Amino acid sequence: MIEHHVRVHPSADRLSREDQLAWKLAAVATGTGDLDADSTAMAVNRVIDNASVAVASLLRRPVAVARAQATAHRTATAGASVFGTSARVSPEWAAWANGTAVRELDFHDTYLAADYSHPGDNIPPVLAVAQHTGRTGADLLRGVIAAYEVHVALVKGICLHEHRIDHVAHLSAATTCGLGALLRLPTETVYQAIQQAVHTTTATRQSRKGEISSWKAYAPAFAGKAAIEAVDRAMRGETSPSPIYEGEDGFLAWMLNGPESDYTVLLPEPGEPRRAILDTYTKEHSAEYQAQAIIDLARRLRDKTGPLENVRSVVLHTSHHTHHVIGSGANDPQKYEPTASRETLDHSVPYIFAVALEDGAWHHERSYAPERARRPETVELWRKITTVEDPVWTRRYHDPDPDRRAFGGRAVITLHDGSVIEDELAVADAHPAGARPFDRTAYAGKFRTLTEGIVTPAAQDAFLDVAEHLADLSTDDLGRLFPGVDTEAVAAHDASLPKGLF
């Protein structure tokens, strides 16, 4: 790997393009050649994973609204597919609809380092453009793997959340690189598109604070749509604010650490295999990633606690992020509110621990149902649960060694009789270092579980077979990566939505 040091430069420095981060990222994309076999296999897993959660969310309101907007932009030539409909639409709108479907349940892959990310958010826009431009399965894989490579590098090197900047700013740059690799664009074109995409997708983290709204699902879809539009403009010869990262009025200077900003981004050398996708991991449970190990821990503790009315208090000792973003350290009263939105509840680790402790299981719909959240005994237990930041867990969260990095915590349960029950779990069971690391069989099982009753068993088999052979798919076969569903039923559901402009 090559260390690229990124700092603010005054305009008078006339920083050369080749020394700018955007150019370095573009060079990684355009230099992506033969694909690593392990990376290719993992990319197939993530295509399966995305389809699983997209189909499971088809009738949820944000997804239906995004789909209605997209299908208002049908195209008679080329175009791209949308989950839940047979329509072909303009690729940026397909990315919008499919990106929302993938993100809605907070149930696909993750990568955590200096910042946060869901690298699977890159797949919908890359797939949409692959379809629209007549690319093959091998082309799609090249684009996906390049996007993951850049996304992981940015998330390792540059922290956004400490400045309350939303993580989709890294996503848009990664997606643009994935599109550049997919289309084999010149480095100059990708460089210009990255800068446009980053400039237009920088937003605050208020979308993940307080009463969290449906925009949490839309935000990555918006970034993907913006990346496609930026690539289109750059291909037509349009230029961008430059240097977007290092400029004296740029991203680092005014959004991050200011004029003294100094970051190090590790990027692969020319010819080095693109393997960053192997550092990422998916979710077994539909909740914020830092809650994954907490759910598994609650399930393990369930047999040790006895009747839960005997619980006096629960304290979860965990990392800075878990405490301040999804724990009581966020100081968001909504995280303890039984009428809170689903988006808020899946970012409330006290709620999640309470339900998992009561049920010994987690379900992407039942665990968030309004009647479930309002159950009196659940509310009583929920409000006994707090989090504290433990420096040990914060250090483990940021450990540079992926084999030691941990996203879990320690639960201390005090009963009314004064007895204490303690246990801890470093990583989720499904994590690569966990008790049951996800493999191809697990991804296929997740797909079958989430699409049961929506996709017929025969159609499930057909989709999994196509995904298994993704590297060999022709242009015409890419549409088969969208599992068959009852499109008439979906259309009937969408017909009840309020109308907008389109």
Overview of the molecule:
- The protein has 502 residues and is α+β, with helices and mostly antiparallel strands.
- The protein folds into two domains: 2-262, Orthogonal Bundle (2-methylcitrate dehydratase PrpD), CATH 1.10.4100.10; 289-425, 2-methylcitrate dehydratase PrpD (60s Ribosomal Protein L30, Chain: A, 2-Layer Sandwich).
- It contains 20 helices and ten strands.
- The chain has a four-stranded mixed sheet with strand order 8-7-9-10. A two-stranded antiparallel sheet has the order 1-6.
- The protein starts with a strand and ends in an 8-residue tail after the last helix.
- This is MmgE/PrpD family protein.
- InterPro entries: MmgE/PrpD_sf (IPR036148), MmgE/PrpD_sf_1 (IPR042183), MmgE/PrpD_sf_2 (IPR042188), MmgE_PrpD (IPR005656), MmgE_PrpD_C (IPR045337), MmgE_PrpD_N (IPR045336).
**pLDDT < 50 stretches:** none
Number of helices: 20
Looking at the overall shape, the CATH architecture of the largest domain is: Orthogonal Bundle
Overall pLDDT level: 96
Distance between the termini: 47 Å
- Largest beta sheet, briefly? 4 strands, mixed
* CATH class call of the largest domain: Mainly Alpha
Beta fraction: 5-15%
Shape estimate? globular
- The arrangement of helices and strands along the chain is EHHHEEHEEHHHHHHEHEHHHHHEHEEHHH
Question: Would you report the number of β strands?
Answer: 10
The CATH topology annotation of the largest domain reads as 2-methylcitrate dehydratase PrpD
Question: Which range best describes the helical content: under 10%, 10-25%, 25-40%, 40-55%, 55-70% or over 70%?
Answer: 40-55%
Radius of gyration: 22 Å
Strand order of the largest sheet: 8-7-9-10
Number of domains: 2
So, the CATH homologous superfamily of the largest domain? 2-methylcitrate dehydratase PrpD
Q: Helix/strand/pairing class, anyone?
A: alpha+beta
